[in-house]
Amino acid sequence: MSDFILPDIGEGIVECELVKWLVSEGDIIEEDQPVAEVMTDKALVEIPAPYKGKVTRLYHKEGDIAKVHAPLFELVEEGGDSQEDSTPEPKAPKTAKETPATQAQASSGEADGDDPTEDFILPDIGEGIVECEVVEWRVAEGDEIEEDQPVVDVMTDKAMVEITAPKAGRVTKLYHKQQEMARVHSPLFAFVPRERDEPAQARKLSQPAPEPAPTTAQPASPRNQSRTPASPAVRRIVREHDLDLADITGSGKDGRVLKADVLAHLDKPATTSPAQQNAGESQPASSGGERRRPSREQEVRVEPIRGMKAAMARSMVTSATTIPHFIYSEDIDVTDLLKLREQLKPEAEASGSRLTLMPFFMKAMALAVQEYPVLNSRLNDDVTEIHYQPQCNIGMAVDGKAGLMVPNIKGVEDLTLLGIADEVARLTEAARSGRVSQEDLKGGTITISNIGALGGTYAAPIINPPEVAIVALGRTQKLPRFDSNGQVVERAIMTVSWAGDHRIIDGGTIARFCNRWKGYLESPQSMLLHLG
């Protein structure tokens, strides 16, 4: 039996969010079988099994933060079950921090014979938090608990946190009284998992002490059998308004009830069934407002910055504070480009490709870069050298489920328009689902941000380091322009906004580069003369 230690999963990464378990405790897994999906500040990573065996313990719940070089799950190698059965306690002395758990298990073993008791170790409940106050126990010693049932509320210096049961079983010991301080990584309560407790039913029936416990726990059990997921803050609002959480439809993940759901539920009686209001209420709407106002005044929703959002925050601060940005905007007439795209769309669809304007923008950019290679370069850390990149890897900013991601298409200068279109479709789908590989995120040399898809026109984009330039595409507008005969005609105009690293790119360079790129887009057939 051994712990699987979370390995290094990326340069500089010290922690990750456990997004999804692909196995359960008790499962038999094969070597290299995916066990968990974790989200770093760069991408979603799949963790495989090191060898064939049986999963005996999962150290984290989905949504928890797991530390690199710390245990992720416990695994019994194939053929090791019999050894585990004969000596059920070897896992206790693994680490120094589990010593209290070992002592508790030993005392429990003396009392219950071979009844194996587990300690629930208080996990990390916030960055920098080493202890918390036990506010309220939801269970008592001897109570039967279900998996994910709330066991205790603890208060950190930042928020109230609800601790839930890792699995179904029977609580045997509470290590702290209410208002006492509990330490992170130390035992919080002890319990016997149900699957281990079942063979000892005869012995349990003969013990008089635990007999009254199920009676005292009965009022709480029906409520927790089908527990509706919600945060402690939301549960407090529900209690303040004498509501039943099960009556509120949750709009969060897995049916989680959010604060907005509670407020919407409070509005329902006032608008749909006034007869349900208390007698004598002549103004249901204003009454509902008065009921909601205290909770709005008291509650501040706190959302930790994690994953891609945290990575973006660090990267943008670095870029904005260390790179002098030079902003340059230009209008591009894309009327002919739109017509050409419409002509080529049927042929592209026939070959299974979706042809948007993005492949044209990228191809034209790769051609322009050949004349102005400084746009496709990088600076070394002490700003003493310019490193010209061997190929043009153009990134595109995608507003995905996990946050803003910038995957890039490698070697655009060597790809056809259909090849670029296929890569755009693949990376867009991967980014929106949060499953972009590390390889697709590395090595970008210049970035395109299509803010026009959301309706923007002008922007001042921030460079994605270590790149030296970025362009934001505004929305396309039908605007009046003069033709060669001096007549006013309708043209499709797109505004683009460039940001260049002013340490190595001056205004003249970015203007000339943009003019070359603009020439290819306004006369797309001219690109044929320069295709290799």
Largest sheet: 6 strands, mixed
* Uncertain segments: 81-113, 209-225, 270-290
Shape: elongated
- Mean of pLDDT: 79
Helix share of residues? 25-40%
Count of extended strands: 26
**Strand residue percentage:** 25-35%
If helices are DSSP runs of H or I spanning 4 or more residues, what is the number of helices? 15
- Gyration radius from CA atoms, angstroms: 30 Å
Strand order of the largest sheet: 17-26-25-24-20-23
N- and C-termini, Cα separation: 59 Å
Structural class: alpha+beta
SSE blueprint and pairings:
Layout: E1 2-5, E2 15-21, E3 28-29, E4 34-39, E5 44-48, E6 53-58, E7 65-67, E8 71-77, H1 81-86, H2 99-112, E9 118-121, E10 131-137, E11 144-145, E12 150-155, E13 160-164, E14 169-174, E15 181-183, E16 187-193, H3 194-197, H4 201-206, H5 213-217, H6 221-225, H7 232-240, H8 259-272, H9 284-298, H10 307-322, E17 325-333, H11 335-350, H12 358-369, E18 377-379, E19 386-388, E20 394-396, E21 398-400, E22 403-405, E23 408-409, H13 417-432, H14 438-441, E24 446-449, E25 469-482, E26 488-501, H15 507-522
Parallel strand pairs: 20-24, 24-25
Antiparallel strand pairs: 1-8, 2-4, 2-7, 3-6, 4-5, 6-8, 9-16, 10-12, 10-15, 11-14, 12-13, 14-16, 17-26, 18-19, 20-23, 21-22, 25-26
Helix pairs in contact: 8-9, 12-13, 12-15
